[in-house]
## 1
Amino acid sequence: MGVITVKRPARAYPPTVLPAYSDSVAAARALAHARDRARWLAEAPPGPVEAPDCDRGAARSLIDGHLTAHPDGGWLDPLSTADLLAAYGLPLTTSVWARDEDAVVGAANALGRLGHDGKVALKAYWPGQVHKSALGAVRTGLGGEADVRSVYREFTERFGPQLAGAVVQPMAAPGVELLAGVVQDRVFGPLVVLGAGGTAADVLADRSARLAPLSERDLTTMVTDLRSAPLLTGHAGAPAVDLAALRSVLARLSRLADDFPELVEADLNPVILRPDGALCVDARVRLERRPSFDPYLRRLRRPSAAEGERTP
Ligand code: ADP
Ligand code: MG
């Protein structure tokens, strides 16, 4: 492509740059891109998606409470994670954090009734853990009390004094495992991520991401951008998953990340998608004190002292 500079007669305007192509195919392609962009710009400007019934006050006090107790921030424990996600209507499965063997067995007896095939999942817990299943800290499909008791005993032997109990959950019915999450980028602000999930998420590396706040269009293109999109929209006779439930998860994450710059990392992996809904069975949330960043104003928006926040 060459460039021709055209001097305009009106002195008030800077010289206009016109692209010139020696190849007509390249010129036609460029014209098509210009047309697509013009159409895109002509569409109604996308407003942020709605996420009804988010309890911002409850989330604010939980986040402030955690950052007061842990000024350097860190990962939320299982109880606070469940409370924060519940405040924003994010569908985490029932998760009981039981601190000793008898409490684990009691929780498993109670939750088994809710589980797929009457079974529960048991996850060893200690603060700051990552990739539990790679360490043998996740056991799924447990049936009777004896199994639960012996798995918890294995956990206590394997993980020693760092073990701070276990999280007991009903087994979720199988479906398509996705990851949905948030990271706060220091330059661009909150980014919402969707991808193929489960324990093979890193290997598959099938992800799409958009800056929050998300628009309705973002919700659509985040899904269609995935290589695994056909698994969600119905493939080889399998029914489509509940895309409205998936959109709601993304919209709520977007709202949460936009409301709280302190939420520096949230990782819902997996969110299990089925034709009748979406259910997250593993969530991690990390907080840090941060001023919020407004990419439009290109400056740091410092939270007011009245809100009880301080800047780093
Ligand atoms: P981690 O990601 O830390 O290894 P997870 O809690 O995500 O641990 O568990 C690993 C895998 O076990 C999940 O991807 C999912 O396939 C399965 N799993 C975990 N909890 C449940 C549950 N409650 N119901 C069904 N499957 C589960
Ligand atoms: Mg996980």
## 2
Amino acid sequence: MDFSIKTIDAKTGVSSIKSGCIAVGVFENKKLSDTARELDRKGAITAAMKSGDISGKPGSTLLLRDVDGISAERVLLVGMGSDDAVTEKNFLTAAQAVAKVFASLGTNDALIALPVDKMKDRDTAWAVRATVIALRDADYRFDALKSKKEPQQAGVRKVAIAASAADTAALKTVVAQSVALANGMDLTKDLGNLPGNVCTPTYLADTAKKLAKEFKLGVEVLDRKQLEALKMGSFLSVTRGTDEPPKFIVLKHMGGKAKDAPVVLVGKGITFDTGGISLKPGASMDEMKYDMCGAASVLGTFRAIAEMDLKLNVIGVIPSCENMPSGRATKPGDIVTSMSGQTIEILNTDAEGRLILCDALTYVERFKPAAVIDIATLTGACITALGHHNTGLFTRHDDAHDELADDLLAAGKATGDTAWRMPIEDAYQEQLKSNFADMANIGGPPGGSITAACFLERYTRKYTWAHLDIAGTAWKSGAAKGATGRPVPLLTAYLLDKAQATNGRKSA
Ligand code: BES
Ligand code: MN
Ligand code: ZN
């Protein structure tokens, strides 16, 4: 799918524009948007509205052909809801409706000219990004492992988005950035959707190496021997039960000044989580192929920022292995020593994410990071707390961390990839007490996502850190089972903002 910005001349408007289809907004009270009115030269659109064939409700659509007096072959009327103000939600619903119609339209090219000026809280840059992401999301297929592929390349493939002359230059950059973001999300979705027998730690490492080659990034992959030399006893305890070799991936995008402290992203890369000896029940266990979605979001974010040529230093770190039971597997009650020197009593081998992350979080101290953000499908308890709408955001509660949390929350809001802040408090730390080691790896059922974050917190005291629990947001279950690409939009928007803050508003 190809996206571009089309400058609309304020005098001549859209009626003389040659296109296979122009998508314009109409409202619930039978009112036309300004652009719809421009195309209503001989009253065809007014007549269609009067007929009741389209309600104007958000997401309702009506396709008109051969509208008199205009150059486009078709006009797609799109309901935007109330004309008082187009809300964020109504705009997104409309963009998704456009994507659905475009997918089976008999033309290759189209122009989208929705009434962005009617939005109160969002600007044209937001609308362009939302449009690109909605269309690319609807276009996403995962049939790599089906012998008969679904037919693609049908419908609209060339999408122009209308802009004023004044907006054109800025929106061209936004289109390029949105396409880069969509490419990153697609990579994250593909990796998540691939099964555990294909997407192994080695496969993730190869994907990182490929990215590094394509975009000239630094890459390093550590294997078991090197992890032993680093004394990552906690990470190694998780990989003991499997024959699949573990990998520890380090990816570097050094787009900033050499001296600037990097932002470090750490992604949980469990390519399959059986639970280990604390075996999970069988129902839906297949979905534990998604337990590497944190890792996939790091790789997808790197795909996006590398294509954007972001002027910021960013390092990605991915501890990756399988969690399997076997005669060699770690057992409940086993005590291991983490890279930090702290000892851990493993009371449940299914709480493995924190065990691989804690060593990665110790490893990244060497980068003297400006901030560290870990991303993990960490706890079922986070789904209980927040459902599937918000990612769980955890940080300590001081000024530096409040600022990081606010930045991440804002990046989530701006992209519709939202997070919700959860507490980290000493009272919860008590639940991790062990009779035999420095800490246990579980804190019991109450506040399970919080005690998991408290565990990680003990390994992050040397830098500013945030934890994103994406257990509820990284993939969908049921009939529409599939990876969502989250939280790549949140992370990418955060890094874009950070680059702008570091380099001044103009350069990023
Ligand atoms: N990968 C799971 C968390 C998970 C479960 C994410 C279901 C999404 C859906 C994680 O490794 C895990 O098993 N966590 C346990 C922790 C418990 C043993 C303290 C959990 O959430 O049940
Ligand atoms: Mn687990
Ligand atoms: Zn897991």
